[in-house]
Amino acid sequence: MKQELECKPSAVSNQTQLKMSSFTATTSSIKDNFKKAFIRWIVEQNMPLTVGESPSFVSMIKGINKTVSIPDYKMTYDLLFSKKIETSRKLTLYLEGKHYSVTCDHWTSLAQENYGALTLHLIDNFELKTFILSCRKHPNGATAAELETQLTSDLTSWGLDSDLLFSIVTDTASNMNSLGEKIMGWNEGSFVRHHYCADHILQLTAVKAFSGDISEG
Asked: Which of 122, 168, 201, 209 is most solvent-facing, going by the fewest CB within 10 Å?
């Protein structure tokens, strides 16, 4: 008997062939990546928001890639504001229910303008985390009342529970002493404490020691 050979068709792959475009960056992705990198560079290098309007800067970037558009002042501001909203939302969720400490500092510029800054600190999984809550100008001076208003406003805007604040750290200026007293009196039975910055104490001690302004005995 004659054996018949069956010719079976080869298995056809179910995978679709990838297009060449999947291996190369699209023009839109290049533009988006450039904007992200540009905004990050602006922030990390403290560059002016108008740097994208500099003819020489535009010429340099266009020499690398003509397809990208360099953000002007308005676009840079809008991109930064959008990033701020996104980051603020994520940070608010992260801080929810966590105990924290706040450091407060104030200074006067050469133009005799008063500023106050608040920074939040917490330990998460044995790692210190630090976030700037705000930096504001105080037209009426960086008084204890002004700084307290700034702090309460920040706690509200970031969704922070004042009962979870366990310490505030400041320098030894009189307005900071008053601020510490105000905060420790916020809630009855509250465990929040006011501490002086160790660096400020060391600096004041060194000044007194080298100036001879330390009484004997």
From this structure: 209
Measure the CA–CA gap between 122 and 99, rounded to whole angstroms: 7
Q: Is the pLDDT of residue 23 over 90?
A: no
Helix (H) or strand (E) holding 130: strand 127-137
Contact 188, 162 (CB under 8 A): no
Coil, strand or helix at 109: coil
| pLDDT of 134 above 80 | yes
pLDDT of residue 142: 86
Question: Half-sphere exposure (CA, 13 Å, Cβ side) for 97?
Answer: 2
Which of 142-145's residues contact partners 24+ apart within 8 Å by CB, and which partners? Answer: 142/106, 142/108, 142/114, 142/115, 142/116, 142/175, 143/175, 143/178, 144/175, 144/176, 144/178, 144/179, 144/182, 145/182
**Tally of CB atoms within 10 A around 111:** 5
What is 96-211's CATH number? 3.30.420.40
Asked whether the beta carbons of 59 and 83 are under 8 A apart, the reply is no
- Roughly what angle, to the nearest 10 degrees, separates helices 174-184 and 144-157? 50
Tell me the domain boundaries of the chain.
28-91, 96-211
- Largest CA-CA distance found in the chain, in angstroms, rounded: 124
pLDDT > 70: what percent of the chain?
84
- Residue 65 CA to residue 172 CA, distance in Å, equals 54
Helix boundaries (H) for 23-172:
27-44, 55-64, 73-95, 144-157
